[in-house]
Amino acid sequence: MDESKSWAEAVAIKNEKIVFVGTKNEAMLWKGSSTRLINNPDGMLLPGFIDTHVHLLSGGIEMSQCYLNDLGSPEEIFEAIKDYLNKNPDAEWIRGGGWLLPIFPDGNPLKEWLDEISSDKPIFLYSADVHSAWVNSKALELAGINSQTKDPPGGVIERYPNTKEPSGVLRESAMDLVASLLPKITKNEIQKGLDVSIKEASRFGITTVLDAGTDTYPPNYSSEKNYDGLSAYEGISNDNNTSIRVAASQYAHPIFWRKHLPIIKKRRYDNDFGSMNIIKFFIDGVIEGGTAAMIEPYLGTNNHGIMNWSSDTLNVAFYEYEKAGFQIHAHAIGDLGIRTTLDAFEYARINNKTTDQRHMICHTQLVHPDDIIRFKDLGVLASFQPLWAYPDKYIKDLTIPRLGKPRSDWIYPINSVKKAGGRITGGSDWTVSSLNPLYGIEVAITRKEPGQKDGESLIPEEAVTLETILNGYTLEAAYGLFLDDKIGSIEVGKLADIVVLDRNLFKIPKHEIHSVKVNQTIFNGKIVYEKD
To answer: Model-level pTM?
Structure first.
């Protein structure tokens, strides 16, 4: 995955670095009495995968909570919640999440269904995309949410038809009305969660991540000795025994961003295995919840979605954070959200007179055709979550009906951005979707559900080549993190972050890519995961 995309037969690693790339016979000259020799004639080596949008720490913590990810029916979800309650009878709250919006009519489950499971303990369950929360009546009562409660700025309290009574789902900032009451995560839970999630990442060949929002506001982690998620990341960035590199980020809040800037600056670090120099901005919401910001209203409505930031404030905030030396990682999904974000990048670029900031827009779901070229012109990377780019229930039941034609043809324009000269990277947004990069890689080149040879595709002209998307998960991702001189390709002198696959991705049918297994993950010259 070097610039010329050359191939080689063998690699030699000494200590933490790659010392040879070339033929098998020449590589054997490096073999000593204590050398580990790995033969893999049917497989392939790649640079370690780099995930440019993942919630690694919170994902590990979620796995110990009421975990509803990948459940396919309301009945399965109800049983999982009951099972969690039975196993955790002393829990003050039932908390967790991962439920899929399309499972319920209009993505809108009711509080009564949770009340039947527990009416005396509050329940708070994030949706899989973390832009909605499902709560029971007890949680609403504790938060003081009733028919008289107004929707907070940037949020929606879902209500029963023709009434103002809350029905049990809170969108966007409305979630904070209940989330602010949740018990703080302890230091022990943070450390255990991070340990679990790092092992998961190694299992899938991931050696570097951009954690898209560690914490600052609202604080949701432990307050004991001022220990939080960022403390945990800074700790492993100094630990020679770690098995992952983490580019951590902190949130900018639309109201408090200026007050937080000097605090965030004090928490910046850059160590052997990680850094914190990225600021996460939530620009808008999501299409399936009707909260992504749209140039034209959602079909059949007057709703343009929600902009969390005014354009003027966003311009100034981008300018100030960029001036302070931070990279910006912006969640933007609707065409208005993306356009406004690009406008703010342009404002900061002009006024700061900068040229190489390598900012990113993540998700990048609905890009107006007029804005495609601006990614190249402004040097902004598009961090796509390619696993979402096939016609699943989210797309068919909640997205296309809200957009109509022709906007539905603008969804996840990975190939358009690439053809226009823009840089693309790959991310999972785990635990929203699978952490395994091979799932996203397959969908990026097929635009079909993983494993489907002849299934329905989503805008097939937006598919990219296998080489292109692999570049997005390796060298291009390293470039986005200012690490392309150290990792992202298998070249002499670079750090030995390598994934060993059991099959050659270029020699198997496209629809089998997701089923390829990782044999070994090598991080900084050490084998940190080995199958079996």
So the answer is: 0.90
